[in-house]
Amino acid sequence: MELSNRAALAESYLFIEGGSLSRKKLSQLLACTAEETQAAISELTAALDGSGLGLAQTEREVALVTAPRVSEEIKATFQEALQRDIGDAGLEVLAVLLYRGPSTRTHIDYIRGVNTSSTIRALLSRGLIERTPNPSDSREYLYRPTPEMLAHIGVVTAEELPDYGTIQAELAAFEDQATPFMTHGGDDSQSTTA
Question: Could you tell me if 129 and 159 lie in one domain?
Answer without folding.
Answer: yes
